Amino acid sequence: MTVKSASNQVKLCKIGSAALTILYWVAGPRANRMKSVDRILVIDDDVELCALVSEYLRPEGFQVECIHDGRSGLARALSNEHLMAVLDVMLPGMNGFDVLRKIRDTSRLPVVLLTARGEDVDRIVGLEIGADDYLPKPFNPRELVARIRAVLRRTRGQGEAAVPDVLRVGDIELDPATRTVSHDGKPVDLTSVEFSVLQVLLREAGRVVTREALVDEVLGRKFSPFDRSIDMHVSKIRRKLDDSDSEEHIKTIRGSGYIFALARAVKKSAAR
């Protein structure tokens, strides 16, 4: 069904077998006034889904390139021509996990992983490998747009807003301007989500940051008690910071959230 107005069309469409009804705008002349176009790579073998997602994303200001197999998708993901990738797990030739591993070997390209609904193991594995976020199928393209924008805000900053000062707590230093982290003078390789999580914890060092606050600020969505993605990201950060039972940078506050241990930083500074 199509409803026309002076400058826009509204369509009702369905995606795949899930028969998910989507209300979306197909923009008119105003779309041509965009100052810049964001290039998004979609790697998914469902041609119909790719077409609908593309049609939905373009009026939102995104230029979309669709690839339908893993190997070709990997080549395009490593071309440095895209701001981010939307990657399906189930792909011919090379599955999404292998594509993501190869991307993470050499690139920090932000990646939103598409998983089968109910497959918690896919989401956990994807986050472990280095996905910035995930979205279970079938999905509402409006939510996909929101996830994409949230990831891009984390990786590109907030436009002309002033860059925060370098954060130093104990042996950890985080520079928002260059998006780099060092531990005891040695570089630490973090994904964009991990960087943002650590930035919030360092900024609030010595104070508890709830899971709800982290999900809201870092992932840009409402907290769900069943969503363990933040916990997975924190676990990966701990490993990369060489946390152990005797020395923890990030402590878990049961039933609440996390705290970056300011006391540990003070102790090390005093020792020096």
Give your account of this protein's structure:
The protein is of the alpha/beta class and 272 residues long. The protein folds into two domains: 155 residues, Response regulator (Rossmann fold, 3-Layer(aba) Sandwich); 105 residues, Winged helix-like DNA-binding domain superfamily/Winged helix DNA-binding domain (Arc Repressor Mutant, subunit A), CATH 1.10.10.10. The protein is 36% helix and 26% strand. The chain contains nine helices and 15 strands. Strands 5-4-6-7-8 form a five-stranded parallel sheet, with helices on both faces. Strands 9-10-11-12 form a four-stranded antiparallel sheet. A three-stranded antiparallel sheet has the order 1-2-3, covered by helices on one side. Strand 4, helix 1 and strand 5 form a beta-alpha-beta unit. Helix 2 packs parallel to helix 3 and helix 4 packs parallel to helix 8. It is globular. The N terminus and C terminus are likely disordered.
